[in-house]
Structures are given as structure tokens and as C-alpha cells.
């Protein structure tokens, strides 16, 4: 696959996502950057635009499926997606294995449900064009679950299972699926 020009990145306003957005920015690149913090998204936008990229920001909670679908389909219509990176992720703590219900639900909703929903907004068009790359950001915690990261570890393992199945489904159709499994990275999250 030649270098991607039109890129969707979730979780672009912090940590790994911000670093990816800045690294991927360049002339003749169109980026759709999702994040929750308007201030941090504006900072990332400024850096990416200074590198020559055309940037669209979506200050949206990824659990808002209607807004996510609208942003992705609109972006794809103007800039056919070459690379989709599902990067957004959250974690929560636990006491003796118990995670507060609202935090547990948020981890599952963001790390798994929103990742799958958002990439499914782009997948039909990518398959119709017969080209593209999907990258799902997992974690070493998927392979070596951590007691301090119960639901986080579980959602990342589920994301890997989905990616493996999707890769098999897309085989021979021009859309590649990658699992990226970083360890601990020096970010505000860790």
C-alpha cells in the first residue's frame, strides 16, 4: 500500500494519539482527528497544519454514535479514507477486583464498542474501493492482563479478537487489518 493520504484517528488529543497525529501530518494529508478536549485538539491541529496537513477536528464523545457516523461518512465523502486508526482508550481502577459500574461501562463503551462502531462507519467504503488499512490499538495488557487494569485488559483482548476475525473477513479484498500492541508509554494515561 502506498503512503496513506486520508487518515481517521480516534483519541487524537492526548498521549499516543497526539504523537500519531503529529507524526502522520504532512503535505497532501487530510486528517480527521477525534478527541474530547477542544483545547488539546486545537493544539494538535495547529501542529499538524504547520506540517502541511488539512485537518478536521471532531470534539466528540465517541459514544455519540450519530455524531461519529456523520463525521466519518462526511470526511470519507470528501477525502476517501486510506487509514483508520482506532486509538481512543480509557481505563479505571478497582478495589479488590470491583470497578465502579459507571467507570466499567465507560471503559467497555470507549475501548470496545466505540472502536468497533467507528471503524464500521468507514469499512464499507474502504471495501468498496478495495483498498485501505485499519489499525486497532490494543495493549500488552491484552496478552498479559493486569490486576490493576481489569476491564481495560479485557476490552483490549476483545479488540484483538475482533481484529483477527476482521482480518480474515477482509482477506483478499484490499483492506488490511493490523493490531498494534504497545506496552507502557510515557503518557498522562500511564
Can you tell me about this structure?
The chain has five helices and six strands. The protein has helices spanning 15-24, 38-50, 65-78, 101-129, 150-170; strands at residues 6-9, 30-35, 54-59, 83-86, 132-137, 175-180. It has a six-stranded parallel β-sheet with strand order 3-2-1-4-5-6, sandwiched between helices. The longest helix has 29 residues, at 101-129. The radius of gyration is 16 Å and the shape is globular. The termini are far apart.
Concise synopsis of the structure shown:
The chain has 190 residues and is of the alpha/beta class. The protein contains five helices and six strands. The model has no long low-confidence stretch (mean pLDDT 94).
Please describe the structure with a list of short key phrases separated by commas or semicolons:
190 residues, alpha/beta, six-stranded parallel β-sheet, 5 helices, 6 strands, 17% strand
Amino acid at each position: 500500500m502506498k503512503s496513506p493520504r486520508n487518515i481517521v484517528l480516534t483519541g487524537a488529543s492526548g498521549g499516543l494519539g497526539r504523537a500519531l497525529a503529529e507524526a502522520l501530518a504532512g503535505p497532501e494529508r487530510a486528517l480527521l482527528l477525534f478527541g474530547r478536549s477542544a483545547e488539546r485538539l486545537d493544539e494538535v491541529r495547529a501542529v499538524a497544519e504547520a506540517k502541511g496537513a488539512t485537518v478536521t477536528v471532531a470534539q466528540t464523545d465517541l459514544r455519540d454514535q450519530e455524531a461519529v457516523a456523520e463525521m466519518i461518512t462526511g470526511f470519507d465523502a470528501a477525502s476517501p479514507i486510506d487509514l483508520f486508526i482506532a486509538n481512543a482508550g480509557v481505563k479505571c481502577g478497582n478495589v479488590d477486583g470491583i470497578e465502579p459500574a459507571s467507570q466499567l461501562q465507560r471503559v467497555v463503551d470507549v475501548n470496545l464498542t466505540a472502536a468497533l462502531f467507528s471503524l464500521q462507519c468507514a469499512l464499507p467504503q474502504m471495501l468498496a474501493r478495495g483498498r485501505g488499512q485499519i489499525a486497532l490499538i490494543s495493549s500488552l495488557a491484552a496478552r498479559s492482563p493486569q490486576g490493576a487494569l481489569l476491564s481495560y485488559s479485557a476490552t483490549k483482548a476483545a479488540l484483538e479478537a475482533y481484529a483477527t476475525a476482521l482480518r480474515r473477513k477482509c482477506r483478499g479484498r484490499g483492506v488490511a487489518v493490523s493490531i498494534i500492541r504497545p506496552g507502557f508509554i510515557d503518557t498522562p494515561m500511564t
